Every structure is written in C-alpha cells, then in structure tokens.
From TrEMBL:
The keyword Cell cycle does not apply. It comes from Clostridium gasigenes. PANTHER family: MALTODEXTRIN IMPORT ATP-BINDING PROTEIN MSMX (PTHR43875), OSMOPROTECTIVE COMPOUNDS UPTAKE ATP-BINDING PROTEIN GGTA (PTHR43875:SF1). GO terms for biological process: carbohydrate transport. Residues 3-235 form the ABC transporter domain. GO terms for cellular component: ATP-binding cassette (ABC) transporter complex, substrate-binding subunit-containing. This is Carbohydrate ABC transporter ATP-binding protein, CUT1 family.
Amino acid sequence: MKVTLNNIGKKYESREDFTLRNINLEIEDKEFCVILGPSGCGKTTLLRMIAGLNSITEGDLVFGEKRVNKLASKDRDIAMVFQSYALYPHMTVYDNMAFSLSMRKERKNIINERVMEAAKLLQIENYLYSKPSDISGGQRQRVALGRAIVRKPSVFLMDEPLSNLDAKLREHMRVELVRIHKALGTTSIYVTHDQIEAMTMATKIVLMNDGKIQQVGKPYEFYEKPQNMFVAKFIGSPTINLIKGKISGDKFISEDGLISITQKGENLKAVTDYNGKDIYLGVRSERFITGKNVEQFKCVIDVIEVLGKEKNLFVKLSSGKDLVITVPGHYDYEVGEKHVFGFDSEALHFFDAETKERIN
Ligand code: ATP
C-alpha cells in the first residue's frame, strides 16, 4: 500500500516549537523506506504518527487513497516491530506468533498455516515449541518479526529492530530482512540511525535532521550526490573530507593555498558563478589518486588505521589541515613518511560555504 505524507507537522504540547514540520513524502507500494538520521531528529515521532500512536498536529497522512489522520492505530492495517520486542515469556514461540490472530478469533487452521509459513520464512521452525527464554536474542528478534508477519499487514513499521543484536547478527539480519521483504513485498518503513542499515536495505532513504527532511532518494545517490554538507558528512565512513577554499578562474584553491585543482567540463560550469567566493570541496577518502599528470599536494602520514581489506591514512598538510585517504590494505605506508596525492576529478563535490547546499 502506498503511504503519502502531505505537509505533516508535529508539536508536542509540552514543547514550544514544532518537532517536525513540512514533511512531504511518498512511499510507494512495496517500497522498503528507511528513515535515517541522528538521535533526536524526529524519526520515531514520525513513525509513531504513521502508526497512529502519536497525534498529527498538521497535514495529511494518506494510506492508499484514504486520509487516516483520525483512524485508530488498530484499524490502520499495520504491524510494528520495535527495538524492545517484548515477547510473552510464558508462551511458546508458536503461541507468541499466533497470539494476535487468536485475539482476532481467526480460524485455527488459518492461524496454523500463517504461523508455519512465517516460521519457514524466518527459519525458526525448530524453535516453535521453545519458550523465549530458551532461544537466542537473534531468534527472539525473528519471533518478533514473525508476530508481525502473520498478521499480513499492508504496512510494516520498524523502529531500530536490530539495535539490540551484536554486530555479526545485525549483519546477518540485514540480509534476512531484505530477503523477507522481497518474499512478502509489503510496504515497509524502517527507522534507524545506522547508515549501513539504510544503505544496505532501503529502496528509498529519507535522511532527516532537526525535524526536517534533508534528502530523499536511492542509497547510491546519497553517496554519489549528497545534496548538502549535512548529508555528505552523515553518509560514508570515514567521513568525507571537506576542504574550504575559493574559486579563482578555473581553479579551486584551498584556503591554505596548498591544494589547487583545475576544473573542467560540468564542474567548471557549476562553479563559475562562485569566482572569488568561499566554497567547500568534498572528497571521499577512496577518491585520491597518484600518478603523472595529476595536480598533487604534499602531506605527511600521521596515523594509519589498518582495516585488513584497506588502510585509512590520516595525513597532515604543512598548514595543519587533516585529510583521510583510503588505500588498499596491502599497500605499504609508514607513519611519518612524506607523500603526494591528487584528486580524481570525477569525484569532486562542491558546496556553497554559506548555504551548505550542493553546487555541482
Ligand atoms: P532517537 O534515535 O534518539 O530515538 P529520534 O530521531 O527518534 O531519536 P524522537 O524520539 O522522534 O527522535 O524525538 C524528537 C524530538 O522530540 C526530541 O527532541 C524529543 O525530546 C522530542 N520528543 C519525543 N517525544 C516527546 C514527547 N512525548 N513529548 C515531548 N517531546 C518529545
């Protein structure tokens, strides 16, 4: 089912200002939409409004063609999975999953069919008659998902459902969730502060900050074309390098004068209006190059972070400016060594120093 948010706003009575305002968003049928953002940006507030657990102060929430602002949560045909997935401890996994259907007085054979179907999808068939205390955290999280799946809702709402799991299990469950979403095709709205979850699972990411949407799009767009400096910094690890400077003719020159890059083609067109003005250049750590015919800058290696597959070189320019450069793990570098690097001209992001909006 399609979910549409038109100019949604939320003001908590105890607060002076709106927590959320002017939220416009279309979540298409079958989409896996991840609402991403730092703590306190309003993600949970938004999800709870969609769920019917928070009132909507202004705007329209539309499910399919129907405005549901005033519709009770239980009548919205949604199922929710939260970080704390309180299961009934005295009930078996099977009964936990069957519970909502039993309450709805669904026929026994239908309940059985749905629970078995969900158990198979979640690969928990072997634990159906165990109690929650006898299974692992990851398995319990699957039961919580199962409980939502058996209801065959039109929309799944998930709020940080993996954050209680250890790193390995989270990695595994990310793939599982993608598989389950593919199998069921149910519209899903998933809240997280974890960019990796967003990048790996979403068909659409909504990145929020301070109660406002910063960018909506496909995961790769966030990495390749961040719309402003907040997005550029939030997505990607190590954090994107940002270098303040000016445009002088066809050149970007860093404020310390140590980096100079000639602009051509589309990039040159984009920055011509900025001649003489302050601008930020953004470069992801893996987009530095070496070699002939490259405009290079000098630096000293300050710290090396060894990650196995790759190394992060934390380098310093003579002005004190720090940059991080990622190189393949098998390349030899030593702390204290002097090096020269250049920029891949295809991978330059420019931002207006005043508005922080993308230029190119
Ligand atoms: P987190 O990832 O930490 O859960 P979040 O992005 O989900 O953060 P929200 O929980 O939606 O953010 O909170 C957004 C803002 O609204 C915060 O400033 C928070 O203090 C405030 N807020 C949340 N719930 C209420 C409430 N019931 N009454 C008043 N203010 C609230």
